[in-house]
């Protein structure tokens, strides 16, 4: 098999897509099927109502709002077969090539005159360009662009539209973007520790404080070990800290994490220590004495963990 | 009080299965085999057993072991908590039972397929799952991936290196010494397989600053120890190892493996509690023991124990282990059997058996003129210790 030949039973490649796009563009403007209904007052009335447009000129003068241009020739839910368009083959080839995602990126309309009640419009489509493949945030894809012009029975152009879509290949890991794998390393929570995890969900690093003597304590517990009060409160820590010690874990594998990763024992200026993972920093760069700042990371739909990143240098 | 216990009980028999990576039989069978071997060593029969003690973590209940060995009535049974920290504690409980008349012949045992069954070195995502006090403790650590014993110890080890200016090679010298001892102990898994410091330094990271060769083995096997009164032990088949002192210890701010919230991370204050009580109860000092069995699941804590027990000053253990200080023929031979790094990981119980052999004078790597042996249990957890003496 040589490049450029259609691949046997295969998917269209870059070259095939380019050739198809060139062929479709060369077809020029293809006239479509005339609108099912002429421009009419009931549809204009519904449109104005939906848009909240109170300008009386349209119904008073029998003129269609220019932005309705597409409305008159929309194919409807059950599209009629045999509606010719030079765009469809290109979009079908992109689908076949795995570029199944679609998002409209540009739409520019030009109005030549008002369409009048009673006129039956006919669309004509010209495929203009296919650009790609390009890397985008959504995935690799092609930008397909076409122009549509609406003509009155007189042959006058009433309105024009340039329309562009991105047809992209959805990345595999985003095929089910709504489902987050549950993070397997979950903390147990008791009535004595719930305030901490509630704080983490709200982006606060809470340190238990004694309601009587004010002693700060982490990890928290039901009593104040200093004055034996069961009267508990909490302070919100500044979020700053210094690495007191740390571990770089290599082996064995830990579910939910990719080794090597660093875990630090962080000393807070408030006077307590807390353990947390170090992120936004190669594990090998962590040192004892390194200034860090807390960052709250969502691990899954339910769990947020307070992690630590290097403090920005001023 | 330990002082009141001193010299009243003795270890009269020791028994063990082979140490392997796959025993091929049930943990209960291993327990029964070791208990029977220990009774045979003492010259006693299962009918003599009226007490059994094991670890809380052991999967074999006392009554199950009693059934398997064909024992009759039990008047004492007890479990000791906190992982490997329980080891010497089982003997302490047995000695108390014997000294107080609760029982006459108590067997302490530990049996597991820790290599072919559930491996302690593997992370257990469920560790933090339950809101028990231990589950809640774990919940401040496990969610961040701090989920293995090596990683928990590494946090202390890094701080030790930082504060004392020590290096990975200082840890490595402990591993080299243990493997050197194991190399000449036929019962050791690493019999005939010593390592060099270069091999230690070339071994892969497990949890920095711990390398593979800083971590003890995982083993299948069982060990049992027969405890009875000193007076009776003198009339039995083997020379008794007198229990001169026995102690358990935990310290302020204690947690399981993660006591990171104390002011100083370079010590093991719970081992300090045990050490002070052992020296006080025995009337001995570090210079009076000829060999020490120090729990060696990870090399850094051997250094810390040497300091915590008074064999050297704070931060001086790297100097002590340099030039063979803890090897046979050194200033303080540590773990002549090769420890858990070299012989087997039977949660510290195999170390107590070695201490008995050293007292008897029957070890494969016998130290000369042994009168007293110090033995410790699991580090980083609430722990325990013994001083055993000839007599």
Automatic annotation (TrEMBL), chain A:
<protein>
    <recommendedName>
        <fullName>DNA-binding protein</fullName>
    </recommendedName>
</protein>
<dbReference type="InterPro" id="IPR029069">
    <property type="entry name" value="HotDog_dom_sf"/>
</dbReference>
<dbReference type="InterPro" id="IPR002878">
    <property type="entry name" value="ChsH2_C"/>
</dbReference>
<feature type="domain" description="FAS1-like dehydratase">
    <location>
        <begin position="33"/>
        <end position="161"/>
    </location>
</feature>
<dbReference type="InterPro" id="IPR022002">
    <property type="entry name" value="ChsH2_Znr"/>
</dbReference>
<dbReference type="Pfam" id="PF01796">
    <property type="entry name" value="OB_ChsH2_C"/>
</dbReference>
<feature type="domain" description="ChsH2 C-terminal OB-fold">
    <location>
        <begin position="237"/>
        <end position="297"/>
    </location>
</feature>
<dbReference type="Pfam" id="PF13452">
    <property type="entry name" value="FAS1_DH_region"/>
</dbReference>
<dbReference type="Pfam" id="PF12172">
    <property type="entry name" value="zf-ChsH2"/>
</dbReference>
<dbReference type="InterPro" id="IPR052513">
    <property type="entry name" value="Thioester_dehydratase-like"/>
</dbReference>
<feature type="domain" description="ChsH2 rubredoxin-like zinc ribbon">
    <location>
        <begin position="197"/>
        <end position="231"/>
    </location>
</feature>
<dbReference type="InterPro" id="IPR012340">
    <property type="entry name" value="NA-bd_OB-fold"/>
</dbReference>
<dbReference type="InterPro" id="IPR039569">
    <property type="entry name" value="FAS1-like_DH_region"/>
</dbReference>
From TrEMBL, chain B:
<protein>
    <submittedName>
        <fullName>Acetyl-CoA acetyltransferase</fullName>
    </submittedName>
</protein>
<dbReference type="Pfam" id="PF22691">
    <property type="entry name" value="Thiolase_C_1"/>
</dbReference>
<dbReference type="GO" id="GO:0016747">
    <property type="term" value="F:acyltransferase activity, transferring groups other than amino-acyl groups"/>
</dbReference>
<dbReference type="InterPro" id="IPR016039">
    <property type="entry name" value="Thiolase-like"/>
</dbReference>
<dbReference type="InterPro" id="IPR055140">
    <property type="entry name" value="Thiolase_C_2"/>
</dbReference>
<feature type="domain" description="Thiolase C-terminal">
    <location>
        <begin position="261"/>
        <end position="381"/>
    </location>
</feature>
<keyword id="KW-0808">Transferase</keyword>
<dbReference type="InterPro" id="IPR002155">
    <property type="entry name" value="Thiolase"/>
</dbReference>
């Amino acid at each position: 098999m040589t490049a450029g030949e259609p691949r046997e039973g295969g998917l269209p490649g870059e070259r095939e897509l380019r050739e198809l796009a060139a062929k479709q563009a060369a077809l020029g403007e293809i006239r479509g099927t005339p609108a099912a209904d002429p421009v009419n007052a009931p549809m204009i009335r519904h449109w104005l109502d939906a848009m909240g447009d109170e300008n009386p000129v349209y119904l008073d003068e029998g003129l269609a709002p220019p932005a309705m241009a597409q409305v008159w020739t929309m194919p409807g839910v059950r599209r009629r077969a045999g509606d010719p368009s030079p765009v469809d083959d290109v979009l079908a080839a992109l689908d076949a090539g795995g570029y199944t995602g679609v998002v409209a990126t540009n739409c520019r309309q030009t109005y030549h005159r008002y369409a009048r009640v009673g006129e039956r419009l006919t669309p004509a489509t010209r495929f203009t360009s296919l650009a790609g493949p390009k890397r985008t945030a959504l995935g690799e894809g092609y930008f397909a662009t076409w122009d549509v012009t609406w003509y009155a029975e007189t042959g006058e152009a009433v309105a024009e539209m340039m329309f562009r879509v991105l047809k992209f290949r959805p990345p595999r890991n985003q095929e089910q973007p709504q489902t987050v794998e549950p993070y397997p390393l979950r903390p147990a929570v008791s009535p004595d520790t719930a305030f901490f995890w509630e704080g983490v969900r709200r982006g606060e690093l809470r340190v238990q404080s004694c309601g009587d003597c004010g002693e700060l304590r982490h990890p928290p517990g039901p009593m104040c070990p200093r004055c034996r009060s069961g009267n508990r409160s909490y302070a919100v820590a500044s979020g700053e800290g210094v690495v007191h010690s740390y571990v770089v874990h290599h082996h064995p594998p830990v579910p939910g994490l990719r080794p090597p990763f660093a875990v630090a024992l962080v000393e807070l200026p408030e006077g307590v220590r807390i353990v947390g993972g170090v992120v936004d920093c190669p594990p090998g760069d962590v040192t004892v004495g390194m200034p860090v700042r807390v960052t709250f990371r969502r691990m899954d739909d339910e769990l947020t963990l307070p992690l630590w990143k290097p403090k920005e240098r001023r | 009080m330990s002082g009141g216990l001193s010299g009243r009980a003795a270890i009269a028999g020791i028994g063990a299965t082979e140490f392997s990576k796959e025993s091929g039989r049930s943990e209960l069978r291993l327990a029964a085999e070791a208990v029977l071997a220990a009774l045979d060593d003492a010259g006693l029969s299962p009918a003599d057993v009226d007490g059994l003690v094991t670890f809380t973590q052991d999967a074999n209940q006392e009554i199950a072991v009693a059934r398997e060995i064909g024992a009759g009535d039990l008047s004492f049974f007890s479990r000791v908590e906190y992982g490997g920290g329980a080891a010497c504690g089982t003997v302490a409980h047995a000695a108390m039972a014997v000294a107080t008349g609760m029982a006459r012949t108590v067997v302490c045992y530990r049996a597991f397929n820790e290599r072919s069954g559930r491996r302690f070195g593997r992370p257990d995502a469920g560790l933090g799952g339950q809101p028990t006090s231990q589950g809640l403790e774990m919940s401040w650590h496990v969610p961040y991936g701090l989920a293995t014993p090596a990683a928990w110890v590494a946090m202390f080890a890094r701080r030790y290196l930082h504060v004392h200016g020590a290096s990975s090679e200082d840890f490595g010298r402990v591993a080299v010494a243990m493997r050197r001892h194991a190399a000449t102990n036929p019962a050791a898994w690493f019999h005939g397989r010593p390592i060099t410091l270069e091999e230690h330094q070339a071994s892969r990271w497990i949890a920095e600053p711990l390398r593979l060769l800083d971590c003890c083995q995982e083993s299948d096997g069982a060990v049992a120890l027969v405890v009875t009164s000193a007076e009776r032990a003198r009339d039995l088949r083997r020379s008794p190892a007198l229990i001169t002192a026995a102690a358990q210890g935990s310290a302020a701010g204690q947690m399981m493996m993660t006591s990171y919230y104390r002011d100083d991370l370079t010590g093991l204050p719970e081992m300090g509690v045990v050490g002070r009580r052992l020296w006080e109860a025995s009337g001995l000092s570090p210079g009076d023991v000829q060999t020490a069995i120090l729990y060696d699941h990870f090399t850094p804590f051997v250094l810390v124990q040497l300091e915590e027990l008074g064999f050297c000053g704070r931060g001086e253990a790297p100097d002590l282990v340099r030039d063979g200080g803890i090897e046979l023929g050194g200033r303080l031979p540590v773990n002549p059997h090769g420890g858990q790094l070299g012989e087997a990981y039977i949660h510290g119980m195999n170390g107590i058996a070695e201490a008995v052999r050293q007292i008897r004078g029957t070890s494969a790597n016998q130290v000369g003129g042994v009168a007293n042996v110090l033995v410790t249990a699991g580090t980083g957890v609430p722990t325990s210790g013994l001083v055993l003496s000839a007599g």
